[in-house]
Automatic annotation (TrEMBL):
Residues 156-322 form the Lactate/malate dehydrogenase C-terminal domain. Catalyzes the reversible oxidation of malate to oxaloacetate. It comes from Cellulomonas oligotrophica. This is Malate dehydrogenase. Substrate binds at residues 92, 98, 131, 162.
Length: 328
C-alpha cells in the first residue's frame, strides 16, 4: 500500500479552505493513485467550524482519504507534511495600515515557516495563498532555513487563469489553444498580465487580438482588478476559483507543464529579469521533475519592462517594511 501524502490546509474553516478540502480529499490534488491524510489548521476560535468541515468530509466517504485531522497547533499540523497550502491569513480591516497588516501576517507566517522547517517531509512543497501572498511566502521561507528556497511559492495561478479566460472570451479561442501567457510581479493590482509572448493556436495573441487599446485599457485592468469585481458582484471574495487555482498550481508543480507552454507562479527570484534575488515574484515558469523553473531569455519590450519594474518595486517596499518590522 502507498503511504498517504500529508496535505495541510491552513484556514481550513474559511471560504477557500471549504472549497479546497473536498477536492483534495477526493484525489484532485495528487491524483487518483495517492491516498491523502488531510490536516486542517485553524485558529482556536474556528476549530469547531473546521471540525464541522471534517465531519462533512467524512460523510463523503472518499475512498482515497486516510483521514482528516483538525488542530490549532502549527507543530502538529506540519509534522511530516508533504504539501502545505497556507490559505489562512489576517485580512486587512478598516483603518488598518500596511505595517499593521504585515505585522499581523508576520505573526502567522513566521511561526508556520518555522514549524515547516522543524517537521515537514524532505520533499515538502509550500503554496501561500493568504494575502499579501508573495510577502507572506517570503516571511515563511525566511523562517525555514533548512528547506530549499524553491519549495516556497505564492499563488498567481488564479490571475493566470483569469487572463486565459479574458483572452478566450475576447477571441473565441479554445482554452487549450492559448499558450504562453504570463503574470509578472506581485499578486496585487500592480501585477502585469503579459500577452506579448502569448500564442493562440501558434499565432501571436497580439496579432489575433490586433487591438492594443483593448490589451492596455481592458485586458490588463480587468485581470488585475478581477478580485474586486468578484467581491462587488458576489458580496464575498473569490473562493472556488481560488481553490481551483491552488489545485492547478500544485498539480502542475507535480505533473509538469506541457511541452511548449508555461504557466505563472510566484517563486523565489534567482535575479532573473532584474528581479532582486530572494524576492517572491510571479514569473512565467515551466515545471518538470517536481520543480518550477523561471522561463529564461524572454524579451521585455519597454511597456512590459515598466510594468514589471513597477510591480517589483512594490515587492521591494513590502520586503523593506517586513525587515524594518523585524519580521524576517
Ligand atoms: P476567510 O476569511 O473565509 O478564511 C480565512 C480562514 O483563515 C479563517 O477561517 C481564519 O480563522 C483562518 N486563519 C486566520 N489566521 C489563521 C492562522 N494563524 N492559522 C490558521 N488559520 C487561520 O478567507 P478566504 O476567502 O478563505 O481567503 C483566504 C486568503 O486567501 C485571504 O488572505 C485572501 O486574501 C486570500 N486570497 C488569495 C488569492 C490569491 O490569488 N493569492 C485569491 C483569493 C483570496 O482573496
Amino acid at each position: 500500500s502507498v503511504t498517504p501524502a500529508v496535505v495541510t490546509v491552513t484556514g481550513g474553516a474559511g471560504q477557500i479552505g471549504y472549497a479546497l478540502a473536498f477536492r483534495i480529499a477526493s484525489g484532485q490534488l495528487l491524483g487518483p493513485d495517492r491516498p491523502v491524510r488531510l490536516r486542517l489548521l485553524e485558529i482556536p476560535a474556528a476549530v469547531p467550524a473546521a471540525a464541522g468541515v471534517a465531519m462533512e468530509i467524512d460523510d463523503c466517504a472518499f475512498p482515497l482519504l486516510d483521514g482528516v485531522d483538525v488542530t490549532s497547533d502549527a507543530t502538529a499540523a506540519f509534522d511530516g507534511v508533504d504539501v502545505a497550502l497556507l490559505v489562512g491569513a489576517r485580512p486587512r480591516t478598516k483603518g488598518m495600515e500596511r505595517g499593521d497588516l504585515l505585522s499581523a501576517n508576520g505573526g502567522i507566517f513566521g511561526p508556520q515557516g518555522a514549524a515547516i522547517n522543524a517537521g515537514a517531509s524532505s520533499d515538502v512543497r509550500v503554496l501561500v495563498v493568504g494575502n499579501p501572498a508573495n510577502t507572506n511566502a517570503y516571511i515563511a521561507a525566511a523562517h525555514a532555513p533548512d528547506v530549499p528556497k524553491d519549495r516556497f511559492t505564492a499563488m498567481t495561478r488564479l490571475d493566470h487563469n483569469r487572463a486565459v479566460a479574458q483572452l478566450r472570451q475576447r477571441t473565441g479561442a479554445a482554452v487549450d489553444d492559448i499558450a504562453r501567457l504570463a503574470i509578472w510581479g506581485n499578486h496585487s493590482a500592480t501585477q502585469y498580465p503579459d500577452l506579448t509572448h502569448a500564442t493562440i493556436g501558434g499565432r501571436p495573441a497580439l496579432d489575433v487580438v490586433d487591438d492594443e487599446a483593448w490589451v492596455r485599457g481592458t485586458f490588463i485592468p480587468t485581470v488585475a482588478k478581477r478580485g474586486a469585481a468578484i467581491i462587488e458582484a458576489r458580496g464575498a471574495s473569490s473562493a472556488a476559483s481560488a481553490a481551483n487555482a491552488a489545485i492547478d498550481h500544485v498539480r502542475t508543480w507535480v505533473d509538469g507543464t506541457p511541452a511548449g507552454d508555461w504557466t505563472s507562479a510566484a517563486v523565489v527570484s534567482d535575479g532573473s529579469y532584474g528581479v532582486p534575488e530572494g524576492l517572491v515574484s510571479s514569473f512565467p515558469v515551466t515545471a518538470s521533475g517536481g520543480a518550477y523553473t523561471i522561463v529564461p531569455g524572454l524579451e521585455l519590450d519597454a511597456f512590459s519592462r515598466e510594468r514589471v519594474d513597477a510591480s517589483v518595486a512594490e515587492l521591494v517596499e513590502e520586503r523593506e517594511a517586513v525587515r524594518a518590522l523585524g519580521l524576517v
